[in-house]
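Reader question, answered in our methods column.
A reader sent in the components of a multi-part assembly and asked whether the whole thing could be modeled at once rather than chain by chain. We filled in our standard form and ran it. Here is what they sent:
COMPLEX SIZE: two components
ENTRIES:
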Amino acid sequence: MKAIGIILAGGKSERLRELTAIRATSAMPVGSCYRVIDFHLSCMASSGINKIAVITQYNSRSLHDHLSSSKWWDLGRKQGGLFVFSPFQNDSNLWFRGTADSIFQNIAFLKRSNEPYVVISSGNCIFKMDFNELIAYHAASKADITVLARETEGTELDVRDYGVLGLDDDQNITDFEEKPIETDRTVISLGMYVMPRLLLIKILENISAEGRYDFVNDVIIRYRKKLKINAFMFGGYWTPINSVPLYFKANMDFLRKDVRDALLADTPYIETKPKDEPPAKFNYLTETRNCLFGSGSILNGTALNSVIFRKVFTGENSFINNSIIMEGCYIGNNCRVEHVIMDKDVILSDGKNLIGTAEEPVIVKKGAVI
Amino acid sequence: MRDKEMIAMLLAGGQGSRLGVLTKTKAKPAVAFGGKFRIIDFPLSNCINSGIDTVGVLTQYQPLLLNRHIGIGVPWDLDRKNGGVTVLSPHQKNDNTGDWYSGTANAIFQNMDYINTYDPEYVLILAGDHIYKMDYSKMLDFHKEHKADATIAVLQVPIEEAHRFGIMNAKEDGEIYEFVEKPQEPISNLASMGIYIFTWKVLQEALIKADKLYSDSDFGKHVIPMMLDGKKSLYAYTFNYYWKDVGTIQSYWETNLELIKTVPDFNLYEDFWRIYTNSDHQPPQYAGEHSDIRASFLSEGSEVFGKVYNSILGPGVIVEEGAEVIDSIIMANCVIGEGAYINRCIMDEGCVIGAGVQIGVGDDSVNVLQPKLYNTGITVIGEFSILPDNVIVGKNCVIDGVTGISDYQDMSLPSGESIIKAMGGSL
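And here is the structure of the entire assembly that came back:
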């Protein structure tokens, strides 16, 4: 079943605070060496979707840098490949006015394809799935739009942060509440959709003529009675990255063997831009327990329950606990770091302490020198 | 085809028989090094870092793994429209001649067509089995400055060891007047590193001439002496940095473990001279709740639940709970079972070691079958070997293949013994 992919990577989340001051949510580093968008690109590419558009807008530099070569996802192709769309200046407007508008402004991408289906994903979550299952379900159920959905009962997810679905017995969507203040429903939309390419073109042209620009409000909610929209329940690992606590948790999840097994251990692998770092080096006095390390790191001190990215240096007698230390950080001798999210390239000089709490981790800005 | 000033020819066809079972199914340049790398990554990365984007890799012995590793050269940025990396294997010519590569110069002679496609001024000849970082563009500057016909990179070795090398006797300014292979009484300590820059026109003549005289023409034995006799100008280019030929089991082991000194002689952690390699994916390394890792290298995707001391782990290695790995080199995707004890061992890729296995215990008897190869206490496990639970393996042992309880007497293999079984593995 052939499909093209669209990854909406333009957004940022205010609740990620300083961390998205310099990058889109899709470019957030996770799991020692990945960025959020790697999971979307790798899943699509390994599901046989080899023509993918990434739509960027907000602070797209680090994302563009990451996507500079499409080789790593096997998307450097003559047929299909990776397309990156940013807003550009034209007669009518400057920016994308909403998710649907961001696709509409690049409608040529849809029109110039001949694949029957389009898979749209919101690039702000971590997951691993075979999109072929979703497309096959969509085709078999003869739905107009299929929404990837999830049961939240028994999880820590707060339904009030998501689009909440009302379903009938055949998994058809009867109601859609966007971030309701109060609801007794428990199934949420994961912001991923599959639909026929020609239908998407038609809808986008219609709503755009009416001055409507948002995919959720103006397509899913507005058309929910007119079209057959159903849900595909996804039970695998999925976590959104839209607040500091969720970002922290998503990283700490990688310390769990079941999560690493689900996401990383097996083919199809999650691919990322290689940095060609040498292996991680543990010197004579290191002590490490329950930690993840990136290549090119050199460790001298103690590290516990932390996610340490590539090319991090920790000095002698340093102590790191419950923290996320991003790529290129330098932690000097005799430092103490607990409950900290340290953005890239931070220098912590000898003897400095940074102590946060589980509820309120300390966030250190990229490139800070302390 | 746009002409190139200099192209490189990388000799990667040798077996490296002194590495024993490690080179049974792969050429020496394909042997893993430093955890995630293979030996050939060093000269290949040196090429691209020196600005050489056209490299012919000459393969002969067991080339499959090498071919797969190099591919079209993406990891080294050697996937080029014009130039790039080309694997050159021995081939039949249209007049039904053509043969195996019988010597280093013969291999280049048989690929003169490849070189002439690029019509280069200069040709760089490299060996595919040395560990070093070198800027060949500086060597080329030296070559041009001296208007040399050939420039030979040399290393200053201790004079008492000079008898083991090909020694260049040179004047003050580097001009070579004599070349002596393994001299009894050396008068110079300039050892050839097997790295040459030739002015291509001069080399082409020499190769044709050498081929008429010798069926196994070799640079050291034939071409260099012939050029000296022919009054060509040959210069020695002194290289004063780290360079290692990991020719034996012991030197392979030592050179690897030297990398994990706090400040090693050979630094892989520099940004400006990166070593590239082909890895299928790069998940992070994990240290478990009860792990203890000291003085070690962990490559991508390795997971340690036990103890690892003074060792190098390749990509995807798993050390289970309670296992202990000491002074060892464990290559890609090996699994060390619970409670196993591994001491002074080189384990090739993809081995599965049962729970409670002990390796490297017992006396120091040298290997019975190959005493010249395995005599320094290191036990070597061939690729894709399987060891059943709780067996005890001595020192200087070799195990290659899938073994079961019945292959061991009293659940143990004494020092110096070997078990060689037919290979069941694949690449």
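What stands out: The interface with chain A takes residues 34-36, 74-75, 260, 262, 268-269, 274-277, 279-301, 303, 308, 312-313 of chain B (CB under 8 Å). Residues 200-213 of chain B form the longest helix (14 residues).
Send us your own complexes using the same form.
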